[in-house]
Design brief:
The chain contains 4 helices and 18 strands. It is of the alpha/beta class. Helix 2 packs across helix 4. It is globular. The termini are far apart.
C-alpha cells in the first residue's frame, strides 16, 4: 500500500511540472524531470535525469541515463544493458564474476568484473545524452557512452562509443555518416547554448529555428547590439 501511495504521489508531483505519462509506464522515484516532458506507452524509465522538453516514445527502456534538454527519443530505445567478459574468463555468465544473483544464483563470493561502465564518479549514470539529440527507433546505447549536443542516431543503430556534437551516426556498430552543419556553424550553435535560454526567450525566437544561417546571424546581431549598449 505504501508503495502505491508513493508512486501516485510521484505522478501527481510530475503533473505539476507538465510531465505527461502515458499508460503502462514503469517509473521509479529516483527519476528527475525538469518539466515539459512526455513518456510514451509501455516505457520503463528508472534512475534518469530528463532535461526540459525531452520526450521518450513508446516501449523504450531507459535506465541510469542523463539526458539533456529538447531531446527526441524514439520507440524501443534501450540503455543499461550491462557488460560481460569476452576474454580471459572461461564463461560469460555472471554467476562466475558477480556476487549479485542475476539468474537467481551465483558461484562468486565477490564481484570481480564490473557489469556496468559508469560515466560519472557518483556511479549514477551509464549513458550521457546531450541537448537537442534525436535518437531513432530501435537504438541500443551501450554502457559508458556519451552522445554530444545536437547529434542524431539513426534507427536501428548500436552505439558503442562516444558521438561528437552534431554528428549523424548509424549502423552496427554506429559509425559517422556526416555532420549536420559546417564546423563554423556547429561552433556557433554550441556557443549559443540556446537550450539553456529561458523558455519565453526560446518561444519568442522559435521562428528563427528553421534556418541555421538566419538563426546564427540574428543571434550574433543581438549579441553585438547588447555588447555595444
Amino acid at each position: 500500500m505504501k508503495a502505491w501511495i508513493k508512486r501516485n504521489y510521484y505522478r501527481i508531483a510530475l503533473s505539476r511540472k507538465n510531465v505527461f505519462i502515458q499508460e503502462n509506464v514503469l517509473l521509479n522515484t529516483k527519476n528527475k524531470f525538469e518539466g515539459l516532458n512526455f513518456i510514451g506507452k509501455n516505457c520503463e524509465v528508472a534512475s534518469c535525469f530528463l532535461g526540459r522538453g525531452t520526450y521518450i516514445s513508446d516501449s523504450s527502456t531507459i535506465k541510469n541515463a542523463r539526458i539533456g534538454r529538447f531531446c527526441s527519443i524514439g520507440s524501443n530505445v534501450q540503455t543499461l544493458l550491462g557488460l560481460h567478459p569476452t576474454d580471459t574468463f572461461v564463461s560469460t555468465h555472471p554467476a562466475f564474476f558477480s556476487e549479485q544473483p542475476a539468474a537467481g544464483f551465483t558461484f562468486a563470493k565477490t564481484t570481480i568484473f564490473e557489469q556496468h561502465k559508469f560515466i560519472d564518479t557518483e556511479r549514477q549514470f551509464v549513458v550521457d545524452i546531450g541537448n537537442d539529440v534525436w535518437i531513432g527507433n530501435n537504438v541500443i546505447i551501450m554502457d559508458g557512452v556519451k552522445i554530444a549536443d545536437g547529434a542524431i542516431i539513426a534507427a536501428g543503430a548500436i552505439v558503442t562509443k562516444d558521438v561528437e556534437p552534431y554528428a549523424i551516426v548509424g549502423g552496427i556498430p554506429a559509425k559517422l555518416i556526416r555532420y549536420r552543419f559546417k564546423p563554423s556553424q556547429i561552433a556557433g550553435l554550441l556557443n549559443t547554448k540556446w537550450w539553456d535560454w529561458d523558455i519565453e526567450i526560446i518561444k519568442s525566437k522559435a521562428g528563427l529555428f528553421n534556418n541555421i544561417e538566419s538563426f546564427l546571424a540574428r543571434i550574433n546581431d543581438d549579441e553585438t547590439h547588447l555588447t555595444n549598449q
